[in-house]
Amino acid sequence: MANNNKLNNQQNILIIGAGLCGSLLALRLGQRGFHVTVYEMRPDLRKTDISAGRSINLAFSNRGNKAMKLVGLEDKVKELCIPMNGRMIHDKEGNTFMSNYSGRDYEYINSISRGELNSLLLTEAEKHENVTIHFNKKCKSVDFENTTALFQDYNTKDEFVEDADCIIATDGAGSALRKSYYLGKKFLFSFSQEYLNHGYKELSILPTETGNYKTYKNALHIWPRSSFMLIALPNLDGSFTVTLFLSYAEGEYNFNNLTTPELVIEFFQKEFPDALAIMPNLVDDFFENPTAALGTVKCSPWHYKGNTLLMGDSAHAIVPFYGQGMNASFEDVVEFDKVLDQNLDSWEAIFETYEKNRKKDTDAIADLAIDNFHEMKGHVANPIFQEKRKIEMALEKEFQNKYSSKYSLVTFNENIGYRQAMLQGRAQDKAILNMLTDKVISSEDNLKDILDKVNAETEAILEDDRIAGLY
Ligand code: FAD
């Protein structure tokens, strides 16, 4: 097949990886009439009893939903969602309090099953006769100069080469295309990968015998313990998927030294007694389930001429603490689609425009996700942080169209990019915290006065940042 870099929708697009981003991209490009072939290394998760990969369920919010609207799947996805209105914080004594995500009732996040969502996207993509998905085919490398990819069949071990008019890699954090860019050394490719000292392990709270939830259903539960934390998200079957985020090597308890059932129970008894009480399966889960690493990947450029492009986690893997990795990867498809609407005349122009528009936002959510790691494991339990949240909630409730906290800007305002949300949100955070510390405001004050003071201080901080050249 000739590699023709000029764009028309009769062209063949090869997608590597049929995870969340790849299956959505295949669906959207299929809807636009392109000939799409997808190669996925794992078996078809609709036919095989395999886990859908890391994290059984995920927090799904507005930016992800924007993509579902684009492909006409909003209603079907809604059926898979469990609303989570806020964080339910559990202290060491087992006391709980709810901290809503927003002061506006209609703003909440959702828990969704990765496997169910991925299955839906695959099925919808395959409804288009111009979309073909092959499973059990692993990409080993990409020849980005000739727009070909080398695959290996999982069963026969046979290797084969596929070519296309362009190749888009949505093969996740360990992307084969990204590796080929890096190893190819044919152009200036910058790449960074930063691991946290913390890893994660998935555990579970099973339903009651009658299939009910053992703790409050409509919340993201958090047991913040400063240097580590436990979280739990609900599933439709009455269970919760629980994730322990813990250092590999530091602290009294860590993944390296929790080596016996007794130690694991001792740790949970001391730190998470109310969770332990509803996790009789803890020890089995702990020793059966893997411990996995968490990291941030940034790289550039994402594309090589008009031949190849990285999208989703392959371009920008982030730590999961803002619940935005999947949402950002879905938003990638929306942004890519907008660029396709511009009718540019080559893949190179499309890839270039897409990366120029998008990268600043994915860099921002990567940084915000690290911020939220610290916020979730520690700050949420801190009185001044709680006072700040109280003020933000009250402002959002009173001034529905005039005020949004950083969390709301990032999570619920899908009409602005992550970078704008980050700059505005960070300045607001700083403004409120400074004024609380200096006792310029308190949650007892008149809300209009607080709003005026917060806005004035935020503007001053943004102006200082502008003068300092921070943006
Ligand atoms: P992936 O979902 O990783 O999909 C990549 C696909 O490519 C997979 O199907 C894989 O099998 C396939 N593949 C890989 N290599 C090859 C190859 N060589 N050849 C062929 N196929 C290949 N995001 C949220 O928005 N909300 C959350 O609450 C959230 N929680 C998370 C919790 C944890 C613990 C983790 C680790 C992540 C979480 N994320 C969350 C992030 C989210 O999982 C990712 O951002 C999202 O899965 C990215 O989608 P993707 O399609 O780019 O990559």
TrEMBL record:
<keyword id="KW-0503">Monooxygenase</keyword>
<keyword id="KW-0560">Oxidoreductase</keyword>
<dbReference type="InterPro" id="IPR027545">
    <property type="entry name" value="Kynurenine_monooxygenase"/>
</dbReference>
<dbReference type="InterPro" id="IPR002938">
    <property type="entry name" value="FAD-bd"/>
</dbReference>
<dbReference type="GO" id="GO:0019805">
    <property type="term" value="P:quinolinate biosynthetic process"/>
</dbReference>
<keyword id="KW-0662">Pyridine nucleotide biosynthesis</keyword>
<keyword id="KW-0285">Flavoprotein</keyword>
<comment type="function">
    <text>Catalyzes the hydroxylation of L-kynurenine (L-Kyn) to form 3-hydroxy-L-kynurenine (L-3OHKyn). Required for synthesis of quinolinic acid.</text>
</comment>
<dbReference type="GO" id="GO:0009435">
    <property type="term" value="P:NAD+ biosynthetic process"/>
</dbReference>
<keyword id="KW-0274">FAD</keyword>
<feature type="domain" description="FAD-binding">
    <location>
        <begin position="12"/>
        <end position="366"/>
    </location>
</feature>
<keyword id="KW-0521">NADP</keyword>
<dbReference type="GO" id="GO:0004502">
    <property type="term" value="F:kynurenine 3-monooxygenase activity"/>
</dbReference>
<dbReference type="GO" id="GO:0071949">
    <property type="term" value="F:FAD binding"/>
</dbReference>
<dbReference type="GO" id="GO:0043420">
    <property type="term" value="P:anthranilate metabolic process"/>
</dbReference>
<comment type="pathway">
    <text>Cofactor biosynthesis; NAD(+) biosynthesis; quinolinate from L-kynurenine: step 1/3.</text>
</comment>
<comment type="similarity">
    <text>Belongs to the aromatic-ring hydroxylase family. KMO subfamily.</text>
</comment>
<dbReference type="InterPro" id="IPR036188">
    <property type="entry name" value="FAD/NAD-bd_sf"/>
</dbReference>
<protein>
    <recommendedName>
        <fullName>Kynurenine 3-monooxygenase</fullName>
        <ecNumber>1.14.13.9</ecNumber>
    </recommendedName>
</protein>
<dbReference type="GO" id="GO:0006569">
    <property type="term" value="P:L-tryptophan catabolic process"/>
</dbReference>
<dbReference type="Pfam" id="PF01494">
    <property type="entry name" value="FAD_binding_3"/>
</dbReference>
<dbReference type="GO" id="GO:0070189">
    <property type="term" value="P:kynurenine metabolic process"/>
</dbReference>
